[in-house]
Amino acid sequence: MLLDPLAQVVTLLQPATPFSKRGSGAGRWRVLRTEVGRPFYCAILEGACRLKADGHDEIALEEGDFVLLPSAYNFSMSSHSPTTPEDIVHTSIVLPDGEHRVGNPDDSPDVRFLVGYCVFRSPDAALLSSLLPKLVHVRGVDRLATLMQLVGDEARAQRPARDVVLERLLEVLLIEALRSVGTTDTSPGLLRGLTDERIAIAIRRIHESPERPWTVAQLANEATLSRSAFYERFGRAVGMAPMEYLLAWRMALAKDLLRREKASIADVAERVGYSSASTFSVAFSRHVGLPPARYARGASFDRVLQAEADSSPETGSIA
């Protein structure tokens, strides 16, 4: 069975209900944000502005642009015109139509945008996010702006099955954004690995058959490269060694199986490539920090708490 590694990673991330809002800017303004790794996105609906994220050059954003920071830390957005410290905005003004205005509330806007955060519920979110580019900037893809509008509309509405619809929209949004990125400026990670035709073959083999007893030599043969060339090329593209990626993927799958299915430890071990439950338990304990049986019990307890939270009348409200 052919599997799409990028779709698998996004699905395992379990993107959940976002916070999103429509915003606009007029005159000179600058908004500073200090984050702790939340996924942030922005779609420019009209006009232009600027975005500066830690570790990246400033980007001039134009109408139709889409930006995704899978794990955002410090960043700022500002007017297209140069700003001074006096132009920093601490609180936006909510206009009668619900739009959040930064800058002059009385002038016509120079830019309109949709911004927001989503949540990756997977316990492996940090690991999986590390496989993605640190910053995604897509220009001129109308499908993304349409998807963002759908996300914003659904987030503000109180329609039945809203959370389910949002989760599906977010999965599509993330996949669409990631596969729209060009190959030249992508940071090391899964996406860059998939743009290398030879390395992509090896990554797909890992995802198609994680239970196989892969070696570097076998993966190199799949990629039709020498062992040394494959090892060096894989590390440069993905940001980690082939066996490190294989282990990380196996453990992510194992945790997902233990959370979602009532499978035995032996069955999970076999499905992720271990010859015995004991060998798998040792590897899992070393990687995760506790044995798989204890992890599964904790995950079951978490599901009960989540079910109770989902039954609360306040669940799903947007702040």
From TrEMBL:
<dbReference type="InterPro" id="IPR009057">
    <property type="entry name" value="Homeodomain-like_sf"/>
</dbReference>
<dbReference type="Pfam" id="PF12852">
    <property type="entry name" value="Cupin_6"/>
</dbReference>
<feature type="domain" description="HTH araC/xylS-type">
    <location>
        <begin position="200"/>
        <end position="298"/>
    </location>
</feature>
<keyword id="KW-0804">Transcription</keyword>
<dbReference type="Pfam" id="PF12833">
    <property type="entry name" value="HTH_18"/>
</dbReference>
<dbReference type="InterPro" id="IPR020449">
    <property type="entry name" value="Tscrpt_reg_AraC-type_HTH"/>
</dbReference>
<dbReference type="InterPro" id="IPR050204">
    <property type="entry name" value="AraC_XylS_family_regulators"/>
</dbReference>
<protein>
    <submittedName>
        <fullName>RCS-specific HTH-type transcriptional activator RclR</fullName>
    </submittedName>
</protein>
<keyword id="KW-0805">Transcription regulation</keyword>
<dbReference type="InterPro" id="IPR018062">
    <property type="entry name" value="HTH_AraC-typ_CS"/>
</dbReference>
<keyword id="KW-0238">DNA-binding</keyword>
<dbReference type="InterPro" id="IPR032783">
    <property type="entry name" value="AraC_lig"/>
</dbReference>
<dbReference type="GO" id="GO:0043565">
    <property type="term" value="F:sequence-specific DNA binding"/>
</dbReference>
<dbReference type="InterPro" id="IPR018060">
    <property type="entry name" value="HTH_AraC"/>
</dbReference>
<dbReference type="GO" id="GO:0003700">
    <property type="term" value="F:DNA-binding transcription factor activity"/>
</dbReference>
